[in-house]
Amino acid sequence: MTYTVTKVRKEYAIDRSHRHIEGVITSAGVHYTRREVVDSMNAGNTWKTSHAGASATIRPMNYCPRGSCLAAPYIKTNPDSTGKDNLENLPEG
Ligand SMILES: [Zn+2]
User: Fold this and answer.
1) Domains of the chain, residue spans
2) Terminal CA-CA length for the chain
3) More reliable by pLDDT, 86 or 4
């Protein structure tokens, strides 16, 4: 199954040095945490972003890429994704 992500939800890191992705919201309006997305990927499902006609595949990461942040697991889009379909740049919901 393929899930289409149209919005992200962000939260402050524990030390409040930055905000990072807490979870995503799909085109069906359903919220999933990072952990739920990664568990779903590990079960064989595909997760993609969709925004302004552009799309990118979401991939798992071990940790948030910011500094020494230990938020885990984390999720990102392909390195070659353009700005508007990048997970970090989706509208917040
Ligand atoms: Zn972080």
Assistant:
1) 2-88
2) 23
3) 4
